[in-house]
Amino acid sequence: MTKKELNNAAVRRNVLRSPNLLASSLLIVIFSLFFITNVCYAAQSPRGEGRELKERIALFPLVNLSEDKDALRYVMPVLRTRLEDKGFDVVDEDSLNRFLLKERVRATGYISRDMARKIGEELNVKAVLLGSVNLFLRGENPGIGFSARLVDSSNGLILWADYASATGDDFTKILGLGRIKTMDKLLPRVADRLLASFTTMPSRKETEHTYRIAVMPFRNNSGVRDAG
Questions:
Q1: Among candidates 136, 109, 131, which has minimal Cα distance to 194?
Q2: 146 FRET partner, CA 20 to 30 A, in 6, 8, 133, 173?
């Protein structure tokens, strides 16, 4: 083969190789850009998502209808922690207490539409969580029961409501295993049951139509003053 033929063959090989080199270079550039974009997004998204998804709510002290005067001391911190674990921004106790004192709010089991709107504006909350501790028994077979409802601060409508109750024996399985013997272990389990369906989104029925009803005063035979 002559020198000229060798040069022509080399040129043909380079021409055939060039598309492969170009394609490889383009793939490297594309993957590099994709990797850099994902790294930047991963570094920024947690804080960004936190700001977008976190909703601020006020947790009113529950009404203690149980016979244990110390019930709220156990219940309130657990509810606050569970709400924060769900991603909600719960108003701190000092700010809430200052508001309740300023507005002279004594009964925290009820909130009017005007008061809901006022707390929404002053504390920048989307909703207010109220409720009651209906049962609180410590001992070998502890028991806890409470109900709660979430009120929209903009219009006073109920966004969510539920209740939960259990005793230590309710968790007993075969051969007596699983039974809960202390309130410290029972309370978080029941709180999780209560808040399992928790949401700040209004139900479809409320958005479609609202019915107006009258609620007559209940007769209080519980022996607990101001239970109604």
A1: 131
A2: 173
Say whether 7 sits in a helix, a strand or coil.
helix
Report residue 2 as tokens.
């002559």
Q: Domain locations in the chain?
A: 1-39, 54-208
Nearest one of 203, 57, 38 to 131, comparing CA atoms: 57
From 55, 60, 82, select the one nearest 149 (Cα to Cα).
60
DSSP letter assigned to residue 170: G
Residue 61 CA to residue 75 CA, distance in Å, equals 10
54-208 homologous superfamily? ABC-type transport auxiliary lipoprotein component (3.40.50.10610)
pLDDT tens column, 155-206: 999 999 999 999 999 999 887 788 899 999 999 999 999 999 999 888 665 5
pTM: 0.67
- 120/99 Cα distance (integer angstroms): 11
Amino acid identity of residue 212, one-letter, is R
Interior/surface letters 153-176, b for 16+ CB within 10 angstroms, e for the rest: beebbebbebebebbbeeeeeeee
pLDDT at 26: 56
136: CB partners within 8 A, 6+ apart? 64, 66, 67, 68, 71, 74, 75, 143, 144, 145, 183
> In degrees rounded to 5, what are phi and psi of residue 2?
-75, 170
Structure tokens at 134: 């209906």
